[in-house]
Amino acid sequence: MAKTSPNEFMRQVRSEASKIHWPSRQETVTTAVFVGLMTLMLAVFFLGIDTLFGMIVRWLLSLI
């Protein structure tokens, strides 16, 4: 592998950095709201599943 001079490296870094596409404020807010809603939905779902399994286990243990 050929060595790259520090000047060439910095040119390559600037070239790659100019290709970065940063999301707009609206895209960031929309994504954040979506992630928050999905997290809330999953939390409620897993709370329901955990409660259901807890009830089943309690019922099974009461049979003993």
UniProtKB/TrEMBL annotation:
It is a single-pass membrane protein. The keyword ATP-binding does not apply. It holds the Pfam family SecE. InterPro entries: SecE_bac, SecE_sf, Translocase_SecE/Sec61-g. Keywords: Cell membrane, Membrane, Protein transport, Translocation, Transmembrane, Transmembrane helix, Transport. Gene3D superfamilies: Preprotein translocase secy subunit (1.20.5.1030). The keyword Transcription does not apply. It is found in: Cell membrane; Membrane. The chain crosses the membrane at residues 32-61. HAMAP family: SecE (MF_00422). Component of the Sec protein translocase complex. Heterotrimer consisting of SecY, SecE and SecG subunits. The heterotrimers can form oligomers, although 1 heterotrimer is thought to be able to translocate proteins. Interacts with the ribosome. Interacts with SecDF, and other proteins may be involved. Interacts with SecA. Essential subunit of the Sec protein translocation channel SecYEG. Clamps together the 2 halves of SecY. May contact the channel plug during translocation. Belongs to the SecE/SEC61-gamma family. This is Protein translocase subunit SecE.
